[in-house]
Amino acid sequence: MRTFIFVSAVLVLAASSFAQDAPPSNSQPNIVLIYTDDFGYADVGCYGAVGVETPHIDQLAKDGLRFTDAHSASATCTPSRYAMLTGQYAWRRKGTGIARGDAAAIIKPGRTTLPSLLKQAGYTTGVVGKWHLGLGDGQLDWNQDIKPGPLEIGFDYCFLIPATGDRVPCVYVENHQVVGLDPADPIKVRFGKPLDDQPSGKTHRDTLKMDWSNGHNMTIVNGISRIGWMSGGESARWVDEDMADRITEKAVQFIEDQKQSDKPFFLFFSTHDIHVPRVPHARFVGKSTMGPRGDTIAETDWCVGQLLETLENCGMTENTMVIFTSDNGPVLDDGYKDDAVEKQGEHNPSGPFRGNKYSNFEAGTRVPMIVKWPGVIRPGSESKALMCQVDFPATFAHLGKNPSMIKVPQDAIPDSLAMVPALLGKTEQGREYLVEHGGALALRHNQWKYIEPSKKAKYNAKTNIELGNHPQGLLYNLATDPGETTNLANSKPEVVKTMQAKLNSIRND
Description:
The structure is a single chain. Strand 10 and strand 11 form a beta hairpin. The chain folds into 2 domains: 420 residues, Alkaline Phosphatase, subunit A; 70 residues, Arylsulfatase, C-terminal domain (2-Layer Sandwich), CATH 3.30.1120.10. The chain has a 10-stranded mixed β-sheet with strand order 8-7-6-5-13-2-14-15-3-16, sandwiched between helices. A 4-stranded antiparallel β-sheet has the order 19-20-21-22, covered by helices on one side. The chain is built from 8 helices and 22 strands. The chain has 509 residues and is of the alpha/beta class. The chain is globular.
């Protein structure tokens, strides 16, 4: 299966009552992957959100399939993105932690990736929004061509937030260039000691429009202090309040540009909301009862609505698969004082699950996932299949309906499984085993969740999130205890032994 993936038999599975509405038999679906940031399982209305409305995302669920056991590949952002694009668990690669703003490209040119596989099948590929997978080959000069990057690993177009909104450099990168850069005002970036005696979040705290709670106290951009130091590039610096508008505009333009093409397209739309700093546009302020965190959830929903409206206006809705999901679980206070904790109210972003972003517990990686494909996926359906984003490369490679082939090198996408029937809602048989990645590794199998022993801290020192680290390991039966409240490791030693052996086998494979 690793050598050749045949892209032909998929829609035999999708025949049945939707045959008359299915796309033409010689077509391939466009794919729009909406990848949100820090959305917890219950941060969306159709998953139980309280205090904020998400009508466009909820409509996506009404028109498609809602998964209840879908996972990001890690409990933090860079590892999840790496795994999703390469089909390899990030914990297999040393150094794939949360990337600095000046990190070199983590995915190297020549690597088989999700977009490179789709290009073999004739897709035009684009990525818009948060990247956070590094750029360049070390010691990057932000005033020259910025590469390698997305264009060197399979994307035809990119418009990027290079890392995150809370890290410098606070500029957009389009293809190989910083957008709007004045050559007479060159950019300098450094992580470590300051570049000069410029104001910082520490020295000029009283001038900030959003105060920091931990760590985010270096260079000030748009009245908000960030992680890292940056000088120059004044004309290119972003305005946080406009960020959602800017990246949505670019995503819409990419879709519209494909209207006259006879090729299918893949758009990876990676939103920044609801990651910190949470600075919604004025028209979304007050749209929730939860302050900036809830308001940026509403802003994200608007972004989703804009893409869906564009697909409809371009006549592309019927032959486009739209996927909505998140890079990891939720976090409230993640470095800024934005009332996320104080105004949480009755809203529980983790839903019935334990943990948050960074955590080995279930809510660290269990995220919302909704898939819509008119005429193929039954509207308003729900699935309990165990799913993971690491499987997107192999699964997307199977979605085409032409009798073409995609060649996959034997050592490529090693952890990615083709899960087409489950993705289309034709079966609830998902993964048999899934490795969840927080500070330690955990293994899911049937009803069992095993977290291997770890001597790391039990709580994140900055966020006070419980991490699920335990010196003897933890075992839970999620069928009867989805909230992971009762550790069964001592009473079920035989299950612990079996699960640890399987985890070791996967790790060493």
